[in-house]
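wait is this the right file?? whatever heres the structure
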């Protein structure tokens, strides 16, 4: 997870947010989401599979600006180069291209801005995200003129990620550049991909409903993950994004969008990697000291724990996907999967024995309802 594999919590004070997010960014772990209070959760199917343009657009912007050197890349490997080639072939130049170097420099230098990848999860549509961010920028973050409880909560979320005047100036430039990117290029690109991959959505949905969801139903219920949205996202690869719901905010897990129906298991691999976050986070907290948590040492275990935990989860509940999962995550690092990819995963993503054993115990305990 970039994970945000973060879990339900009410919006906390700015100082606490700054401390926790700074530790995450400083240690190279996945960005961390904050939780606002948003009222009015609409009923829906249990964990439906969806796509959302505004989520993909926002992540697309970060993918084009970020230097991605993580062991498990934060975005689909080669995404930035592939999209740059497409834009050049179409002879398209947008404000995101013009302002890229300036935006990328500040993004790289800030310990907080990288976590703003989670902003689109607080909005239901591109239109809503566009209008609320524009009002937030115009008000310089002042929530006094917000129009509803929902918008006030969205201002609070934006304020948690963009705390300073310099951060809000960056947001203004990034957002205006992104709206131009969407108008001139991304909307048509995204719409084309939805048409091309409609059968992929059907295949992923069928695999989730007929295989994964029935096997994981007890696990999901006992880890307080009973419902939410699964979002297939074009910019993502093996590292998903998770925002867990609280106080009316709907949970969302964004995973990779496979290219072909035959690749539908890849989305299940990343989903397992994300859904195990409640367990891996607890195992890390329980087996590291407060000093290690404050210093960021504990955060360094997050990526390995997610990869190893996802494998343990599938070995327990959906063992027929375990080897494929291992091969997928070995390949995600740029390595070549061997004859025993599960052993490679253990070697490539080492964990202290105490954390490894705690993950295994908690998965078994969750299955037992303990």
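ok assuming it is, sequence goes like this
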């Amino acid at each position: 997870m970039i994970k945000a594999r973060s879990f339900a919590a009410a919006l906390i004070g700015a100082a606490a947010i700054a401390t926790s997010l700074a530790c995450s960014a400083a240690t190279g772990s996945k960005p961390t989401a904050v939780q606002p209070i948003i009222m009015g959760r609409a009923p829906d199917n249990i964990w439906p599979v969806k796509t959302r343009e505004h989520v993909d657009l926002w992540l697309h912007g970060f993918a084009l600006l970020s230097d991605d050197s993580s062991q498990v890349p934060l975005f689909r490997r080669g995404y930035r180069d592939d999209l740059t080639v497409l834009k050049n072939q179409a002879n398209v130049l947008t404000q995101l291209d013009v302002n890229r170097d300036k935006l990328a420099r500040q993004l790289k230098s800030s310990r907080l801005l990288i976590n703003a990848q989670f902003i689109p999860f607080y909005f239901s549509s591109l239109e809503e995200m566009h209008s609320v961010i524009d009002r937030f920028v115009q008000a310089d973050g002042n929530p006094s003129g917000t129009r509803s409880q929902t918008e006030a909560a969205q201002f609070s979320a934006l304020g948690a990620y963009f705390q300073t005047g310099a951060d809000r100036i960056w947001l203004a430039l990034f957002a205006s550049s992104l709206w131009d990117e969407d108008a001139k290029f991304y909307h048509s690109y995204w719409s084309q991909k939805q048409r091309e991959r409609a059968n992929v959505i059907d295949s992923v949905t069928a695999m989730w409903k007929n295989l994964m969801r029935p096997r994981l139903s007890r696990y999901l219920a006992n880890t307080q993950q009973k419902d939410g949205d699964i979002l297939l996202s074009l910019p993502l690869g093996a590292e998903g994004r998770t925002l867990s719901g609280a106080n009316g905010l709907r949970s969302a897990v964004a995973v990779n969008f496979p290219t072909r129906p035959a690749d539908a298991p890849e989305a299940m691999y990343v989903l397992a990697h994300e859904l195990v976050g409640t367990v891996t986070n607890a195992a890390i907290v329980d087996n590291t000291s407060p000093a290690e948590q404050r210093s960021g040492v504990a955060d360094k275990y997050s990526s390995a724990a997610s990869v190893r935990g996802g494998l343990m989860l599938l070995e327990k509940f959906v063992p027929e996907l375990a080897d494929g999962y291992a091969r997928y995550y070995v390949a995600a690092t740029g390595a070549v999967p061997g004859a025993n990819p599960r052993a490679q995963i253990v070697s490539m993503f080492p964990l202290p024995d105490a954390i490894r054993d705690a993950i295994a115990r908690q998965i078994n305990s969750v299955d037992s309802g303990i």
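DSSP finds 16 helices and five strands in the chain. so i think its the right one actually
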